[in-house]
Amino acid sequence: MAMLEVKDINVYYGLIHALRDVSFEVNEGEVVALIGANGAGKTTTLHTVTGLLPSKGGTVTFEGKDITHKPGHAIVKLGMSHVPEGRRVFAGLTVAENLRMGAYTRPKNEIPESLKMVYERFPRLEERKNQAAGTLSGGEQMLAMGRALMSKPRILLLDEPSMGLSPLFVGEIFKIIEEVSKAGTTVLLVEQNAKKALSIADRGYVLETGKIVKTGKAADLLNDDSIKKAYLGE
Q1: Each residue's pLDDT tens digit, 172-188
Q2: For residue 171, what pLDDT is reported?
Q3: How far apart are CA 11 and CA 68, in angstroms?
Q4: I need a labelling partner for 53 at 20 to 30 A (CA). Which of 60, 84, 127, 185 fits?
């Protein structure tokens, strides 16, 4: 049984049919990449999985539980964390306060241990723990990821983690995603940078205008001529 199974979800924005019978699965321990052009429906897919958008059909199942109509806060408690596109950090709060917000589902006595784990993974955050989050610039992505990890998720959903980052920061972020995966957290990665995403993923799905049009092992997709032409600039 897959850890996360999405089956035939359909989502509308008014009269616009944004997702059409989208189905995919993520097995425990995998890094799965969902790639596609801007506007393909990648963010909409994540928002539907995490309870931020309603589906007009289909089901979302997480570890055997139907979460299709559960609200976002209930889904977090089940062990799913979502790092949204655009980071969405609380700009006026400090780095440490943002991180503590991510642990609201955890018992208070576990927060120091979670903070220690995040600071070990992101030393820069510890250096800036008393700094306002809105002043971090490129470090906001690290803070958003650290905040998501504070809840000790079983699965981490990442929406465009490389967006707006310099090549140096992009390399660093993807290295951290690999480390998080190796430490036992399953990852669903939504990313426009198809080459980078597929280079660290086990499997991938290609989304075009609201439909899954191709799926396979990440290595196979990287060598697929149509994928190279459409997404890898080759």
Answers
A1: 889 999 999 999 999 99
A2: 87
A3: 12
A4: 185
